[in-house]
Design a protein that fits this description.
Elements lengths: L15 E2 L3 H20 L5 E6 L4 H16 L3 E6 L6 H13 L5 E4 L9 H5 L13 H8 L8 H12 L8 E5 L6 H10 L3 E5 L6 H5 L4 E4 L17 E4 L3 E2 L5 E2 L4 H4 L5 E2 L6 H21 L7
Helix pairs in contact: 1-10, 6-7, 6-10
């Protein structure tokens, strides 16, 4: 399967680059418009990002969220806790933010201090403010087909495919990775769109044999270059969720792009594919949460 339902790729065909910039721009524009309307009505939108690490890459990421939020008219509070913060302190801060009517979205950023378990702590984020779908209750509602915020990265994969008009209904999809951040929630999102889904992981026997049977392959394991041409059938659509830092400081995905390009009909770049949409969805979710509180129609989405 190829974008737009065209014929499978044959040698020499150009591989479509599944870039996320345009979709991210659209999401940010919608969020900014509604955030402006809410602010004018006296309901300024506010996002809180709780950070308990000195990891530099994490610091860069949360600052990028704050900059994007500011451009969209969303106040973003970076709530910095000590890198050795006890779970009780983190839990108390999340509970405080959850009870604050002026805060509409809450993100608990990882990595966390030793002894702190993300899934346990995220249970203290109010589901209505859980804009990155981290609370186990949010994940359970997603699995049951009930309204909930999905983890932004998982939702970004589907949003990217939609933006490039790639059909999902009736297609086979292989999700490589079973995390609660991407793999498991993405499987549910794809099932909701009538795809037939296989979730692969480190114990999957003959991974290449499984992924070669899929129309759509999503790589989300954090292993640079894991997916190569041998893992793909001709014409496969490949979404690379991996963000691995090489020794020279550059980013690369879980897909060996030069190899995969020999078989794939479409491939998302790293960076520039799923990432921009993920950040935009965090803002969109925050505005949606605020809109629900204010009774604005955007909150019904």
């Amino acid at each position: 399967m190829t974008p737009g339902g065209s014929a499978p790729q044959v040698p020499g065909d150009a591989v479509v680059s599944l870039t996320g910039a345009e979709r991210a721009k659209q999401l940010r524009g919608e969020a900014a418009l509604v955030a402006g309307e809410l602010a004018a009505a006296g309901s300024a939108v506010r996002l809180a990002v709780v950070v308990a690490t000195e990891d530099e890459s994490t610091g860069w990421y949360v600052r990028s969220i704050a900059r994007a939020a500011d451009r969209a008219g969303i106040a973003c509070d970076l709530v910095t806790l000590p890198p050795d913060a006890e779970p009780g302190l983190i839990r108390a801060k999340l509970a405080q933010l959850s009870a604050d009517d002026g805060v509409h979205g809450i993100i608990l950023q990882t990595p966390l201090p030793p002894g702190a378990v993300a899934a346990e702590l995220a249970a203290d984020i109010a589901p209505g403010k859980d804009v990155d779908g981290a609370n186990p209750l949010s994940l359970g509602r997603l699995a049951a087909g009930l309204p909930a915020f999905a983890p932004a990265t998982a939702e970004a994969v589907v949003s990217l495919l939609d933006a490039h008009k790639i059909d999902l209904a009736g297609r086979t999809a292989a999700v490589v990775g079973r995390s609660t951040v991407v793999g498991k929630p993405l499987a549910h999102l794809l099932l909701d769109r009538d795809a037939t889904v296989t979730v692969c992981h480190s114990r999957t026997a003959d991974l290449a044999a499984v992924t070669r049977g899929a129309d759509i392959v999503v790589a989300a394991v954090g292993r640079a270059g894991l997916i190569t041409a041998e893992h793909l059938k001709p014409g496969a659509v490949v979404v690379d969720v991996g963000t691995n830092v090489l020794p020279d400081g550059t980013l690369t995905g879980d897909v060996d792009a030069p190899s995969a390009a020999g078989r794939a009909s479409a491939l998302s770049p790293v960076p520039g594919g799923v990432g921009p949409i993920t950040t935009a969805l965090l803002l969109s979710h925050t505005v949606r949460a605020a809109a629900r509180t204010a009774g604005h129609p955007f909150g019904n989405g």
